Structure formats: C-alpha cells, structure tokens
Amino acid sequence: IGCGMLSVKTNIRADELSRETLQEITDKIKASVPVGFNWHTEPNKTHAVFCNDWDLPICGREREKAELQIGTLGDGNHFIEIQRGDDGYVYFMIHSGSRNLGKQVADHYNKEAIRLCKMFHQDEIIKDELAYLPIGTKEASDYIKEMQLCLKFSNANRDCMANAIENCIRAAIPSVEFGDRINIQHNYARLENHYGRNVWVHRKGATSAMAGEIGLIPGSQGTSSYIVRGLGNKASLMSCSHGAGRKIGRKKAQEILSVESECELLNKQGIIHSIKSKDDLDEAPSAYKDIDVVMDEQKDLVEILIKLSPMAVIKG
Known about the structure:
The protein has 8 helices and 9 strands. The protein is α+β, with helices and mostly antiparallel strands. It has a 9-stranded antiparallel beta sheet with strand order 6-7-9-2-3-1-4-5-8. The chain is globular and about 60 Å long. The two termini are 18 Å apart.
C-alpha cells in the first residue's frame, strides 16, 4: 500500500561530480539508510505521522514496528538512485512504500474480503482473486482508514530517507542546495469522479496523471527515469504507468540472465550498482521493459519534463 516515488533536484552540476565523490555519497547513504529487511535500531516516536490516529486494528498493532521502520528502503524493486538530469543537474530519487505496515494491513483485509465473499457465495470472484470489501460494511470502513494511514506513513517514510540522503550529500559537498520534493504514490484506492459518476479508482502499477499534475515514472537501474506532467486523459481515468514494468518474472530472470552480461551493461554506462550474484538478477535491467518504448506509448497520458539517467543505484 502506498508505494511511491520521491525526487529532489540539487544545484550540483553532473559534469562536476567526480566518481570519487559519487562513490563517497553512495557509501554514506548505504551506511545511513537501512535496506532489505533491516530496520533502525532506535524507534522514531516523534515524527508527525505518529500524531495521527493509530487506534486502528492493524496499524495500532504494528505501530512499534513502524516506529523502527520509518526511514528504511525495503527490498524488491525499491531503490535509491543518484541521477543525471538532461538539464545538466544531479537529482536523487527514492522508490519505497509503507514497509511491513502496509503488507500487514493488505494481508489482513484481503482475508476479510475473501471471508465476506464466501459469505455471499461469490466463489468465482474469489477464484479470480477479485475479492472485495462492500462499501458500507465495517470492514470496508476500517480498511479505508488503515489504508489512508499507510499512505501517510509511506510519504513520511520517503521524507525521512530524503532527509538522510540530503545529509549524506551535504557531508560530501557542503555547498549543496536542494530543490522542492516531488513525493507521489501508487498502489492505493481513491474516490474520484469520472464520466459523471463517483467511483473508487484502484491504481496498482499506475499513478495519477491529472491535468497539470507532476509525476515520476522510473525505468530500471540501467535505464532512464522521467519527471512528467499529467495530461488528464479521461480514457485512462487520468492515470499513467508507475514504471517500466517487468518483462521477465523474478525467478525466470534469475534463471536465464547472466551476471556478467548485466554487470557489463551497467559498467559500460559507468553506473555504480550492486549486482553481484544470481540472486540480484531479478532486478537486472534486462528483466524490465524498455522504458523509452513505454513512455512513447503513453505520450497521450503524460508529457516529459526531465529525463533522468542513473549514476549510482542502491537496492535492498
């Protein structure tokens, strides 16, 4: 729930950032931001997100863990990148979400949805993995409240990581200045009006692209990402893709891709990366679709503002 993207522009000229300083910044970030299944060792009880109402069945139960997980990256396709913008400046980008908090909420209410659909004898819906929570039920009301708190937590999680990354860059380059943060979400449900009706729009693998709305669409760790502006296309419910999308499943990628070939692909571009073994190939560039083709196919949904190329990639 609430996976999303954050991007920040710096005043550092990409051509003036040395390889040594880039490596220094990367190492500092790795030391500051827990990745994978790692958490912080001390809880963060003071962040504003914890001033929200946590008296909820699952979020309330998971709060202590959330206080340790805020400001952590996670695993899978989540990443931190240092990037070169086609405007000549250095950016950093984060892809992460609500961590274990969101997973626990999603797992619990999916089971509740299946239970309710069984009660109503909707076996085909369950078989198709489309179990739902009927609006008006206590279960649906509770889920909406918990989902919205997960969304607030995911935004706060990315902000905490952004604070840490800015401190790491500032430690290496004291004169650095940072622009405004773009912090957006995907993987959520929101009540919107389309074609004259109020409907719940579920964006999974999609992000909002309303007219004039600024968005972020990442590629893979070997390809470009984009800052975009939404065109408000009604036919897509004012949405666009949230990334390149996978071309090969995780297990298949580990079976058929070559560590040497994927490393060479990244090394030729001078990208600092972490592909070391077969286990890392599920997130190799060749496991993903060509982001430039994806962008061309959704040019009626968004317009490109900035193209961002990876310089250094940190993953779980």
